[in-house]
Q: What sequence folds into this?
């Protein structure tokens, strides 16, 4: 394979469109939303070159309007997982042997399709299927996914160009082979971009993939598959199945050719999968690569020098964009006593202005949580907080699922820094604030570091550079993505590679070369041009 011979088109972050009144993008999106709501989609699995329909149809509805049916997907069983694995293995040789620039061109074309003719369709699907506002859908389904596809192609080229030094008479080189076997991608509901990137990044490096998305993301997953097929992805390279997790796992994790897991989801599920892989390790042809991004209990830590208005805004945006359903969402906040009065005032004022409702109304900042199970879980946390005398609900606390799964942005003030909502991941629009004595900053940093088993994102707000430096050192292992004077959300591909450690995952940094390196198995090749013909070294000469 030629290294450094070809250059891909210049790569830059995709521009976020504004969707202002009368703009072409807003008109196109409105049309796409209306069209999607006007019909019911029939959504097959994609295995090899076939669209597979089982007849076991499960309805899909907008979380903010659960009586409306967007369509039905065909649920599969064990036999379909086996078919998908066989299709991936059958496609592997031809795909792995395809030169890198041809693989890259497919995903670069997919990026351009999403940036152009498919932008409204994939955003509309995300808004309806996952209840994302127009802005949240735009930065996710369009911009972030486009960035993943384009930057990954750039990283692929950079990886292939990294070659070892050679001594005179010797040529050393590294061959970046795909893994031996197939990759299993399990993707979450909350980011369309993640759902697309997990199978696509592994495939870009020459692997073939079995992809199982969350059921609540299938409506936009079908658009991803439509785009990839339109871009020329060969049959069997990515196989999209809708199968219950344990059913899929029983096939995949017992197969000798299982080569890697690319996962985003809950910590508990990821740990169980790792345990299963470990138990079955003797069955595999090679040691599987395990890459996972899981939960978070993400923090905002404020110093007494912070600006109260900046802090309040960081809380509102960090905790409540996309209903707090980002793994990076702020869910615990530490506020110094000298700032709390102003912060509370600004925060309550902001929350009074937030509009909540369906995504089709672009004036709504806040929409519904993903499904009834999530709604019930979050409501239980809120009720538990209300029943605790150490807590005070200073804003929100209400919920209603009669029309959609709506939960008000909820702010809990606690006197107990070890209370349930300060420690456990909720994955919803609930943030808990603990007010500490302003002179106990260093002591509170230690509290932040020790409170949670997670280490995904966190931020420090301060206008004191010594305080910032101290926080960075004390919280070195508390967050894989650390923010200074900002909310702990909004990582951008190519700018802030994303991932955390501890209970938050393997920290393989999606959106960087580090992640792509996990999907190759390097082979070192040494070629000697004039081999020696005598085993004797000069030191053996006694004269």
A:
């Amino acid at each position: 394979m030629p290294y450094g011979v070809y250059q891909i088109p210049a790569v830059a972050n995709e521009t976020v469109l504004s969707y202002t009144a009368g703009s072409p993008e807003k008109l196109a999106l409105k049309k796409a939303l209306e069209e999607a709501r006007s019909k019911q989609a029939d959504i097959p699995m994609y295995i090899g070159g076939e669209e597979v329909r089982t007849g076991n149809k499960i309805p899909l509805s907008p979380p903010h309007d659960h009586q409306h049916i967007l369509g039905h997907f065909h649920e599969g069983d064990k036999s379909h997982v086996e078919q998908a694995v066989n299709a991936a293995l059958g496609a592997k040789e031809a795909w792995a042997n395809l030169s890198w620039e041809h693989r890259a061109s497919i995903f670069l074309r997919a990026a351009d399709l999403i940036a152009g003719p498919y932008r409204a369709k994939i955003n509309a699907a995300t808004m309806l299927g996952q209840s994302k506002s127009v802005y949240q859908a735009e930065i996710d389904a369009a911009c972030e996914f486009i960035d993943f596809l384009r930057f990954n192609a750039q990283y692929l080229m950079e990886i292939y160009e990294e070659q070892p030094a050679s001594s005179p008479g010797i040529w050393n080189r590294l061959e970046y082979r795909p893994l031996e076997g197939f990759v299993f991608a399990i993707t979450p509901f909350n980011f369309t971009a993640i759902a697309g990137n997990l199978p696509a990044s592994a495939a870009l490096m020459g692997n073939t993939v079995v992809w199982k998305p969350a059921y609540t993301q299938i409506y936009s997953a079908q658009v991803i598959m439509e785009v990839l097929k339109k871009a020329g992805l060969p049959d069997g390279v990515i196989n999209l199945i809708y199968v219950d997790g344990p059913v899929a796992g029983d096939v995949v994790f017992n197969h000798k050719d299982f080569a890697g897991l690319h996962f985003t989801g809950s910590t508990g599920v990821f740990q169980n999968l790792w345990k299963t892989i470990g138990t079955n390790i003797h069955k595999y042809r090679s040691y599987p690569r395990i890459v996972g991004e899981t939960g978070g209990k993400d923090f905002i830590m404020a110093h007494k020098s912070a600006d109260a208005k900046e802090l309040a805004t960081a809380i509102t945006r960090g905790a409540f964009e996309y209903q707090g359903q980002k793994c990076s969402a702020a869910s615990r906040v530490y506020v110094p006593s000298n700032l709390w009065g102003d912060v509370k005032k600004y925060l309550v004022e902001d929350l009074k202005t937030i509009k909540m409702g369906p995504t089709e109304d672009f004036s709504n900042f806040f929409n519904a949580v993903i499904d009834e199970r999530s709604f019930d879980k979050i409501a239980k946390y809120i009720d538990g907080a209300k029943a605790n005398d150490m807590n005070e609900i200073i804003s929100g606390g209400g919920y209603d699922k009669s029309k959609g799964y709506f939960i008000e942005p909820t702010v809990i003030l606690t006197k107990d820094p070890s209370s349930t909502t300060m420690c456990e991941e909720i994955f919803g629009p609930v943030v808990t604030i603990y007010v500490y004595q302003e002179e106990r900053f260093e002591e509170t940093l230690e509290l932040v570091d020790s409170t949670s088993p997670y280490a995904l994102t966190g931020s420090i707000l301060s206008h004191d550079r010594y305080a910032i430096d101290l926080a960075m050192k004390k919280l070195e292992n508390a967050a894989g993505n650390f923010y200074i004077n900002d909310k702990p959300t909004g990582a951008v591909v190519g700018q802030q590679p994303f991932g955390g450690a501890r209970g938050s995952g393997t920290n393989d940094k999606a959106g960087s070369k580090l992640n792509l390196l996990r999907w190759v198995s390097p082979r070192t090749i040494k070629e000697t041009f004039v081999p020696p013909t005598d085993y004797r070294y000069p030191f053996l000469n006694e004269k």
In short: The chain has a mean pLDDT of 97. The radius of gyration is 25 Å. The CA atoms of residues 121 and 424 lie 36 Å apart.
